[in-house]
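User: Last request for today: this protein with iron/sulfur cluster, please.
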Amino acid sequence: MDYLGKYKSAVAARSTSAEVLRCSQDGGIVTSMFLYALEEGIIDGAIVAGQGEKPWQPKPIVATTPEEILSSRGTRYNVCPNMSVLKESVRKYGLDKVGIVGTPCQIQALRKAQLYPIGLRDVCDKIALAMGIFCMENFSYQSMTQIVQDHCNVDLHSLKKTDIGKGKYWAYTNRGAVSQIPLKLTHKYEQPGCHVCLDYVANLADISTGSVGSPDGWSTVFIRNNNGENIWNKAVAAGVFETKPIESVKPGLELVTKLATEKITKNQKEVEHRASFGVGKGLRNPYI
Amino acid sequence: MIFGKKEKKEPAPKSQEPKAPVSKPIAKEEPKKEERPVANKITVGHVHMSGCTGCLVSLADNYEGLFTILDNYADLVYCLTLADARHIPKMDVALVEGSVCLQDELSVEEIKETREKAAVVVALGGCAAYGNITRFCRGGQWNQPQHEGFVPIGDVIDVDVYIPGCAPCPQQIRNVCVTAYLLLKGNAEQQALAKAYLAPLMALASEGSKATSSEACGCDIMTKVINQGLCMGCGTCATSCPVFAITMEEGKPNIQRDMCIKCGACYAACPRAFFSFDVVNQYETIIDAIHGAMNPGGN
Ligand SMILES: Cc1cc2nc3c(=O)[nH]c(=O)nc-3n(C[C@H](O)[C@H](O)[C@H](O)COP(=O)(O)OP(=O)(O)OC[C@H]3O[C@@H](n4cnc5c(N)ncnc54)[C@H](O)[C@@H]3O)c2cc1C
Ligand code: SF4
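Assistant: Here's the final one, the structure of the complex with iron/sulfur cluster:
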């Protein structure tokens, strides 16, 4: 099994924009990349996680202005169905060059949709930039609420940021308090569909990024294909990012590989376990 | 252009049609193909059952892409709307649009004949594959009020490939046309790629429209994905629905079943319905192959 997917190069990177970094989750890679691509006409807009109706509930939006992209910074650890507005991005917003950010499963869905555009007339040839974000698991909105309010004892209205790292789930409040719980306590709230996922670092994206492997405030970035490399090199040349060789940072790719191997091995076991779930009966296996 | 070609082709078969039994005109047709600039095209027909012609329009909506297909890869040997042939000829691929009306003898005969004459039968679109909107028919309409029983073609014949959706999108039809060509006429490598690409659509066809295996509607999303603990909330089903019957509520699809027309698009699009790493990991190779095929001169 190829745990990290195909990639041309890997680097540690950080946005050079203080404004982006002020509220981005990690190195502001996704937001800065979309801002640059929008400005350069590489994309006409991007599907990102905007603000939903409830506090900390994301909602997919088709962002066509820098303001909209900026205001969608930061990770919300609950499901945001970014693929659900793909058709609209082309057919209603009239985008010819679509940017999209997604978790590994969403990027898998995107590539399948490009190959089998069953109900997506005129959409599949218009994907200009697919940014993938690493993902171990995700939560429903209710799960996230329960974790933050019941376990971390933080009100959603005073929540400033949540983060998963170093084996803990972190909740930071607007007033500077930090609450953390062992990640183990959150496992039972995970979305069941995540347990059959066989991708940690968005193997099928043009560029994928996450915090793991790089120091705080920096991101690990995989540049995966020609399209990704083209855009990445231009952005770096334009001074959008500062970069360091991934070999020069701690803990580096070793930790990324370790976590990817753990996730995929565990979930492969789950897929096997499902095959003999009942008595002489199994659950459905989506992988053919 | 299509008509122009057909006109040139027509005279000879016409004169032979009346006296020759079914198998003979076929033998006569083959030498004609060799006169064409591309010798090894496949033959394709469009068979019209009870449908709205929307699937054919969708094929035509490949615009110049349709001409590329017809110029280089496929001869349209049968198509009531676009080709002047009255009887179903022998062909490599039959694209069948529409469901079968059980009370319409001619339809029943023709779908059976299609199976006999075509090496590969493709259910083009929701009606042929799953019944789609014709599932809701109950007769009483002018001018054939007794026409009330409509079934997917898979209830009457074996089907090889499904292209769900209402209408299936032009690029999906294009992809199947090109991969079918590669499967039948390509080199070993292209054949392997095409086979892998078509495999899931063939699997959908072999699951068929059996009540036990598939409802071909939003219900599939519930029973075969969410109920099975497989949904991860990507939203692809919602964006694939042609009638906007699916909205994402709290990160999961919510299906308004009264709006659902049973076209099968949502389930076929869902990455947790089927997902082949062998195919999707090669997405760039496959997309490049299709674009290359659609742009034979290069640019
Ligand atoms: C559920 C989840 C689990 C993750 N798990 C890991 C992990 O295990 N290891 C790791 O290294 N990184 C993980 N990440 C990625 C990490 O949290 C950051 O999103 C990533 O490093 C990008 O940071 P950034 O500063 O470059 O992006 P930013 O510039 O902050 O932009 C983040 C982008 O992600 C979008 N986004 C936010 N929430 C969601 C969502 N729920 N679904 C889809 N898109 C969203 C935003 O709209 C924005 O465009 C996870 C992310 C998510 C959403
Ligand atoms: S496409 Fe499949 S996995 Fe994605 S939201 Fe719909 S049912 Fe869930």
